[in-house]
Amino acid sequence: MLISDLVKRLIEQVAFEARSSEFVDKKSGVSARLTISARENAVSAAERRALINSESTTQVWISDLAGIIPSITGKVELVYEGEQEGPYQVAMNLVDKAIRSQFVKYFPDPDQLKKRRNTGKPSAQQKADENPYRSITAWFDKGNQLNIPFNTKDEQKIQLLYGVDGLHALVKNTSPEPMICSLAYSWSSYCMALPPTPPLVKSYLKIRSNLKTCLEA
Asked: Do 99 and 119 share a domain, yes or no?
């Protein structure tokens, strides 16, 4: 079982996000056990998937972070507004924010690219050079979708990720992490960090729905 430093940082970032969340009770704080429990559950989720798929080896993918939701809801106390929002939704939002926060440490910040684009009128070539996400967003704008069910085999995930135009090039040029882990991270982070287009939102909601169904099973 492989768990990359990237996943470990993401789990740690979830705790940081929880401490600054308006939905979490500051008086009760965030249990130090949150990250320990979250790591254990992430590994368990990956092991469960490997057993279902009869795989001898696997790694913790971003989608396996669905398994840490009980660790979050069980280790934080919510204020009234958080209870109204719902423990599951608050936990998912914390994971989303953690991925957004870590995303810009590995890949160009989409918000900064947007600000740079709005300061002038660059040529088409300059746009292509400055925005490494252009081919990826174009792929989604064409109506393509990326749906990866929770229990998809590792090999199938990799093939699906390679099918997204420009994703492999983005990861290869910007990320120091091993290729497989970076591809998974790039895809998930991209879905949560970039300004959404209708096809992208639909694809993202599909994976969120798959994760929720798995949790409720």
From this structure: no
